[in-house]
Amino acid sequence: MKRILRNCIPLFIGLGIGLLLFSTNGWPGFLLIFPWIGTSITIGCLIGMNRKGKQKDIGRRIAMLLCAPIFLIFMGIMQKENLQLEETVFYILVFVYTGYFIRVLVHYAVAKVFGPFIWGRGFCGWACWTAAILEWLPICENRKLPAYPGWIRYAVFVFSLALPALFVWLGYDWVNMHVNSAGGTTWFAYGKTGALIWFLVGNGLYYAVAIGLAFKYGKKRAFCKIVCPVSLVMKAQTTVALIQKKPTGNECTSCGSCNRNCPMDVDVMSYISQNKKIRSSECILCGVCSNVCPQKAIL
C-alpha cells in the first residue's frame, strides 16, 4: 500500500497545482491540465511498479504518451496556445511592455523554471511531448554520442530568444496581437491562427530533426543533447534540485550497466561509486539507471 501511495504523489501534486491556479486565475482549464499530467505520471509509475529491469521503463514511456495530448491537442490545437520557447519569450516581453498575461507563461514557470528546483529535468524524462515520440522509435541501441559541436543548442537557444525580441522591436506579433508604439495591444481579426501555425510548424521541425538525429546516432535522445534549447532553461536548477537519483547504500561494483543504458550519457557510475547524488544537469530522472543496476545501488 505504501508503494502505491508513493506512486500516487504526482497525482496529488497535479491536483494541488490545478486547484491553486484555478483559485487564483479562474480558468477551468487548469483543473484539466495539471491533474491530467499528474494522473498520467501516476499511471506510468503504477504500470512499472512490479516490473523488473528494463521492463520497468515501459511505465514511464506510457506516461509520456498520455501526457502528450494535453500539450499537443488541448493546448496547442484547441486553445491555440503555442508552448514553444520562442512564443514564451515573446509573451514575457509582451507582459513586460503591456502587462498582458498569457497562460503559456504558467507552463514554463511550473514545468521549466521553478519546478526544476524540486524535480530537476523531470519534465524532460516524464512529460516532454517531443521525447514522447522519440522514446518509442524502433532503435535498440543507446550509443554514446561521439564528439559533437556543443555550441549548437546554445546557438538555437540564442536564436529562440532573439527572434521574438526582434518581432517585439519591430512592433509586430506573428501570433495574435500587435504591440503598438504606445505599449497597448490590438487584437487581429484572425485571433490565434498565427499561434496555431507557429505551433504546428515549430513542432513539426522539432520532430523531423529529432527523429533524424535519433536514427543517425543510434540514440533516441540525441536531439535533447545536441539541439534542444529548452533543456538549457532547466540545467542550473537540476544541479541543486530537491529530488535527485542517489545511492541506496548497496555497494557499487562498477559494472557500468547504468552508464551504458543512460539515455543522456550521464556518468552515473562515478557519482554512485563515490556515494554521491547524481547532480548532473543532464539527468532527466528517467530512472533507467535504477532499473538496470544489478546491485540495486541507485534509488
Radius of gyration: 20 Å
Structural class: mainly alpha
Number of helices: 16
Reading the helices and strands in chain order gives: HHHHHHHHHHEEHHHHHH
Helix content: 55-70%
* Average pLDDT number: 88
Strand order of the largest sheet: 1-2
Uncertain segments: 174-191
Largest sheet, in brief, is: 2 strands, antiparallel
Count of DSSP E strands?
2
* Cα separation of the termini: 19 Å
Strand content bin:
under 5%
Tell me, briefly, the overall form. globular
Polypeptide structure, described:
The structure is a single chain. With 299 residues, this protein is an all-alpha fold. It contains 16 helices and two strands. A two-stranded antiparallel sheet has the order 1-2. Helix 2 runs antiparallel to helix 3. The chain is globular, with a radius of gyration of 20 Å. It starts with a helix and ends in a 7-residue tail after the last helix. About 6% of the residues have low confidence.
